[in-house]
Amino acid sequence: MVHAQALAILQERPGRLVPVRKYYANNPADFITDWANTFNPLNPGQGLATTLPFVLFERQREWIDYVLRKWHERERGLTEKSREVGMSWLAIGFSSTMCLFHREFVVGFGSYKKEYVDEAGDPKSLFWKARFFIEHLPAEFRGSWEKSRHAPQFRIFFPDTGSVIFGDVGDELGRGGRSAMFFVDEEWDEIGEKVA
Question: What would the mean pLDDT of 7-29 be, rounded to a whole number?
């Protein structure tokens, strides 16, 4: 109900969107919790909805602060995680939020397998998650973004900010161009053993 009321206020007074967008540009964790949704394909078996509010827990907020700090300090970072903690969704939500509210922000995602980065119609792929994340935001925050026009394979364009999320696959991840951030989903060494 609070979100519906807040959205109604923004729709009635569009001028208020400017300071709100400025706030979210510096507080991506608040934007995700306030407006975003996530998807859990396991829920129907338990009688639950698949689309759920993306309410961050404390460790997820701490991770966003960590990534923001690394970005500002221009340093590399490493995240060790266990499965089913929502790290892929978190990285995608964070990156999409930064692209929505920052001009010409470029984020890369890479993995050793193409299907983990972008496989049409596959919810396990990172770019499926990104399209879902953006598509389920209120129009006031999506702006002129349209899935059919701005989300081809391995690319997501943000026409209102000139920002982009791109995908990369193989053993030379992130070396082909420059970006504000580059996330490596899983990394393998030269003899084929998983290192991250």
Answer: 89
